[in-house]
Write a structure and sequence with these properties.
CATH topology: Rossmann fold
Number of helices: 9
Shape: globular
Order of helices and strands: HHEHEHEEEEHEHHEEHHE
Helix content: 40-55%
CATH architecture: 3-Layer(aba) Sandwich
Distance between the termini: 37 Å
Radius of gyration: 19 Å
Strand content: 25-35%
Largest sheet: 10 strands, mixed
Structural class: alpha/beta
CATH superfamily: Vaccinia Virus protein VP39
Number of domains: 1
Oligomer: single chain
Length: about 280
């Protein structure tokens, strides 16, 4: 099955994504790019990674958003236009193109609605980027992508399996285990790598001669972020409920009470990965 992501969920998580991503790895990528780079964003959704990385690249560049969900790509233009104007930049949309005029250059965003095929994602690109994608794909899909990759690659926010829910609950381990199993479901690219994705990606890239670096990019959800807390609680409980219905419901109800009282803090572990091609 294909995994679809609601625009409201992507909007809810965006500030936590932005705070979590490694600015240091992003700057290293930007430093390796040509004067006016062409960046291809895999599984781009509503354009969150553009809004994080474009200011770090700074200079004029062309950005291509690839996603199977046309509604999310449409949302990307509206969200990015509003974001650009808040930064004091002019934004103009025409057809499948959005132009953002900045003092440091023109940022051109284009969209392409299609399924992600691992073998041809790099064509014409100076860099490949993605966010919250690698834990959704299979080892076979990732291997095919690495086989054809010839340019720098930045993968942000790949889940690595670490979680911390404070305070502790007796059912935490059960819910965490069920959620990890659920992560391995087929999301449209074969059996998903889930929390194994960072280690598999780093190994696959290194085996092909890429120089790799990684950094933690954990979500840190404070006690005041009730909306994000509720989404994570409900998602974890739903994953556990098929096998552990009563325990999942008990855990969910307790965690929601703690969230409403401002007593819950959550950390979800991710890693960012930067890979530079051999000889590049």
């Amino acid at each position: 099955m294909t995994e679809w992501f609601a625009a409201d969920w992507l909007a809810l998580r965006e500030p936590f994504d932005h705070a979590a991503r490694s600015a240091a790895l992003a700057r290293r990528l930007a430093d390796r790019l040509p004067r006016r780079p062409r960046v291809v964003d895999l599984g781009a959704g509503s354009g969150s990674l553009f809004r994080f990385l474009a200011p770090i690249i700074g200079r004029g560049h062309d950005w291509i958003l690839l996603d199977a969900d046309g509604a999310l790509l449409d949302d990307a233009f509206g969200r990015t236009s509003a974001w650009a104007r808040r930064q004091g930049f002019a934004a103009t949309a025409s057809g499948d193109e959005l132009l953002v005029s900045t003092p440091r250059g023109l940022w051109r965003m284009q969209v392409s609605q299609r399924m992600l095929e691992a073998g041809d994602v790099h064509r014409g690109a100076d860099a490949i980027v993605c966010s919250a994608l690698l834990d959704l794909v299979s080892a076979a899909w990732l291997g095919r992508m690495c086989d054809t990759l010839t340019v720098p690659f930045l993968a942000c926010l790949t889940v690595d399996g670490r979680q911390a829910w404070r305070p502790h609950h007796p059912y935490d381990a059960l819910v965490r285990s069920a959620f990890r199993r659920d992560m391995r479901r087929n999301k449209g690219f074969g059996p998903a790598l889930g929390m194994a994705a960072p280690s598999v990606a780093l190994r696959s890239l290194a085996e092909r001669g890429f120089t790799t670096a990684s950094a933690p990019s954990d979500w840190r959800i404070p006690r005041t972020a009730l909306g994000m807390q509720r989404a994570l609680i409900d998602g974890a409980a739903d994953a556990a409920r098929p096998a552990h219905s009563a325990a999942a419901t008990t855990w969910q109800e307790m965690r929601l009470r703690q969230a409403l009282r401002g007593r819950l803090a959550i950390t979800i572990g991710h890693r960012d990965i930067l890979a530079l091609p051999p000889g590049g």
